[in-house]
Amino acid sequence: xxxxxxxxxxxxxxxxxxxxxxxxxxxxxxxxxxxxxxxxxxxxxxxxxxxxxxxxxxxxxxxxxxxxxxxxxxxxxxxxxxxxxxxxxxxxxxxxxxxxxxxxxxxxxxxxxxxxxxxxxxxxxxxxxxxxxxxxxxxxxxxxxxxxxxxxxxxxxxxxxxxxxxxxxxxxxxxxxxxxxxxxxxxxxxxxxxxxxxxxxxxxxxxxxxxxxxxxxxxxxxxxxxxxxxxxxxxxxxxxxxxxxxxxxxxxxxxxxxxxxxxxxxxxxxxxxxxxxxxxxxxxxxxxxxxxxxxxxxxxxxxxxxxxxxxxxxxxxxxxxxxxxxxxxxxxxxxxxxxxxxxxxxxxxxxxxxxxxxxxxxxxxxxxxxxxxxxxxxxxxxxxxxxxxxxxxxxxxxxxxxxxxxxxxxxxxxxx
Length: 416
Ligand SMILES: Cc1ncc(COP(=O)(O)O)c(C=O)c1O
Hints:
Blueprint: H1 27-32, E1 35-36, H2 48-59, H3 70-84, E2 93-96, H4 99-110, E3 116-119, H5 126-133, E4 137-140, E5 144-146, E6 151-153, H6 156-166, E7 170-174, H7 186-199, E8 202-206, H8 222-225, E9 233-237, H9 239-242, E10 251-254, H10 258-270, H11 278-290, H12 292-316, E11 321-322, E12 330-334, H13 342-352, E13 355-356, E14 358-359, E15 370-374, H14 379-396, H15 406-409
Helix pairs in contact: 2-11, 3-11, 4-5, 4-10, 6-7, 12-14, 13-14
Pyridoxal-5'-phosphate binds next to helix 4.
């Protein structure tokens, strides 16, 4: 059991090393004895309600073709209303096996090869790939960093210039924004939506982290900020991060505009992607119907992990700048004041602290000197990792600059 909620045990680490977990199961992790705070899934067992529903489904020995029950959308809508006060129009919902395929299909549906698509780095690396792999032109509107307040905002002036000069067709939004942890406010989203409306840019909002919202912040779904009748928008929401079932693969795609929904539906049909996985839909329905208490406990635990991480770094390596996390379970840390190069920092974290984390440069050029730490782990793992990191940084700061090659240090595969 955990201190915060005796009904759940998030404290006892679960060994994932002998599984095919991308985060924990790699040969590199085993060979180098690393602790992994990398890929964005959680080290916590799923809610027992979900496991029970899956076991019950397995009791029936046939896994033939199935339709998706309407009740799936109903429990999803009830969750959105209960958690965020968001009224979902269930008519607007499509289903897909994942958020990234929802982004890819939206790109294919609402733009042509060569069209511009705007993203705001530092951002989830597949945002770069999904644009370029579909032969669209990547347009960057980097987020602005406030080093004193340790927070990030959108550059709406830069965005307008980009809209005027490059006439993009689409823009990808990440809300909350992975990796910087911003939960976009209503006023920010309204200004963004106005700009997109004015310049005919379709917004695709990746809201996969939208249940992870910390005290004092609220998740604003794009649907509540957008003036209808404009170029339209798509919102991608998934239970996969929320309930720690990224391996099952399920996403809800909200497309309020009827014509746009038909266009996207047609793309999905052409790709032959319209069938949900039976175990995923079973798990998703149980999760939204019965997972409130489990998720509430997870959220409290993660918010506390963020606090521990931030406070210990602030006390023991005060020059390290931890971006203020308003949501999500990742922490974005600026180590530029160490005086070390990015490569040396990567070396210190991997070889001295023995941690596998994500390299900031995978999130864009303005990720230099940054590293992303996944804090969805048990508190013992967190504490050991923090101690190792602080020790290594304290020593590393005074080490002679050495020549190290980035390629030997950094695992650039990045799933999340
Ligand atoms: C912002 C963001 N979008 C999408 C994904 C992956 O979504 P999916 O596995 O459903 O494609 C992740 C995973 O880390 C993410 O952080």
